[in-house]
Amino acid sequence: MKPRISESEIIEDQELAEYYSLMAKKYMRIPCQRVLKRVLSKEIERGRAIDVGTGPGIFPIFISKALPKIQFEAIDLSPVMIDLARRNAAEEALGNRIRFEVGSAYSLPCEDHSIDLLLCINTLHHLDRPIDFFNEAARVLKEGGGFVIVDFHRDTSPVMVWIFDLLWRAFFRGHPRAREGFIESVRSSYTLEESRAFLDHSRLKHWKLYTRTVEMWIESVIPKEGNRFGE
Ligand SMILES: C[S@@+](CC[C@H](N)C(=O)[O-])C[C@H]1O[C@@H](n2cnc3c(N)ncnc32)[C@H](O)[C@@H]1O
User: Fold this and answer.
1) For labeling, which of 44, 119, 191, 229 is most exposed (least CB within 10 Å)?
2) 85, 56 in Cβ contact below 8 A?
3) What pLDDT score does 225 carry?
4) CB of residue 105 inside a 6 A radius of ligand 1
5) How many Å apart are CA 29 and CA 62, to the nearest integer?
6) Whose CA is nearest to atom 16 of ligand 1?
7) pTM, whole model, 2 decimals?
8) Is 113 left (phi over 0), alpha (psi -120 to 50) or beta?
9) Measured in angstroms, how far is the CA atom of residue 224 from the centroid of ligand 1?
């Protein structure tokens, strides 16, 4: 297995960020529906949620529309992305419902055990300290709170990587840097074994990890005696 090549720098280029935002608005409907389905499977339809590494905010915007009783906070290290996310939410008349803030996955702007749902989509590979992030997730989640973390994994079969890279390059042909996005993300992602080891060494409990095509999904399972809202 090739060593990981870290991709921890953030997007500060306005043009590239706008391009990603445009493409996400056009093509992220199905990924958003898949995440929503997992959220609904956990019977989470209200309460406080946080999206970590929100980028242009497509996931919290989609889920807020489907689940109007959820109050979202969404953070990203990139101020350029946060500006775009605010703009995208305003376009959907959700400016008052989602709070977008510049913030770090290692220091979430939430009190201990205050969050019902945590999302982190396509962002784990940017984090060089995944255990610190998982510990932070464990700190902010309520007892029995749900989480959905989706990312690539570096040990995806080379054939799958080749096929998805071709597709990605076709979709993102309009921007030279964006064209490299898929392959760079895979190279900076963790293997399934590395991810399981990080989770085992973290305080995040009640998780399951599985794969879907080139993706790795880490999500909460409801503990037997679970009391989702700590009531
Ligand atoms: C590939 S984008 C994913 C955006 C969004 N979740 C989506 O799937 O459309 C990853 C995002 O993570 C952000 N990011 C990288 N490192 C971060 C960190 N330490 N804390 C918070 N956000 C971070 C980047 O700025 C970028 O917007």
Assistant:
1) 229
2) yes
3) 59
4) yes
5) 8
6) 126
7) 0.95
8) left
9) 33
Which pLDDT tens digit goes with each residue over 12-30? 899 999 999 999 999 999 9
- Predicted local confidence at residue 224, as pLDDT: 61
* Candidate from 6, 10, 14 with most ligand 1 atoms within 8 A of CB, to mutate: 10
The pLDDT confidence band at residue 223, using thresholds 50, 70 and 90, is low
Q: Indicate if the pLDDT at residue 229 is higher than 50.
A: no
Structure tokens at 216: 């790795």
CA gyration radius, the chain = 17
What are 81-91's pLDDT values in tens digits? 999 999 999 99
Retrieve residue 65's tokens.
């529309």
State how far Cα 18 lies from the chain centre. 19
Q: d(Cα 86, Cα 27) in Å, to the nearest integer?
A: 19
Least Cα distance to 122 among 24, 26, 47 occurs for 24
148: part of which helix (H) or strand (E)?
strand 141-152
CA distance 173 to 212: 25
Atom from ligand 1 closest to the CA of residue 78 = 25
All structural domains of the chain with their residue ranges:
14-153+192-220
Q: What percent of the chain has pLDDT over 70?
A: 96
Task: Establish whether residue 21 lines the binding site of ligand 1, counting it when its CB lies within 6 angstroms of any ligand atom.
Answer: no
231 vs 89: CA distance, rounded Å: 31
Q: How far apart are CA 87 and CA 93, in angstroms?
A: 10
What is the average pLDDT score of the chain?
Answer: 94
CB-CB contact of 126 with 7 (8 Å): yes
